[in-house]
Specification:
- With 69 residues, the protein is mainly alpha-helical.
- Helices cover 54% and strands 12% of the residues.
- The chain is built from two helices and two strands.
- It has a two-stranded antiparallel sheet with strand order 1-2.
- A hairpin with a 2-residue loop joins strand 1 and strand 2.
- The radius of gyration is 19 Å and the shape is elongated.
- The N and C termini lie far apart (52 Å).
Length: 69
């Protein structure tokens, strides 16, 4: 899933939560959350995924040492 799709789903989840409903429809699918806590968890998950994609892969450091003889 790309960044634009995640942002669309995020806005759909926020709209549903702020309107007081627990059903969200996107891509021809409808998801109904059992509680506000589940909806909040879904929003948190999407926000983490968006943050990860916006940050990028980051750097990988592989330290090594050379012993002087």
């Amino acid at each position: 899933m790309n960044l634009d799709e995640l942002k669309l789903r995020h806005s759909a989840l926020l709209s549903a939560r702020y309107s007081g409903t627990r059903s969200v429809s996107y891509d021809g699918k409808t998801v109904t959350y059992g509680s506000d806590a589940e909806l909040a968890a879904a929003i948190g998950d999407i926000e983490r995924r968006i943050a990860k994609l916006e940050r990028g892969a980051g750097r990988v450091l592989r330290p090594f040492a050379i012993k002087d003889l």
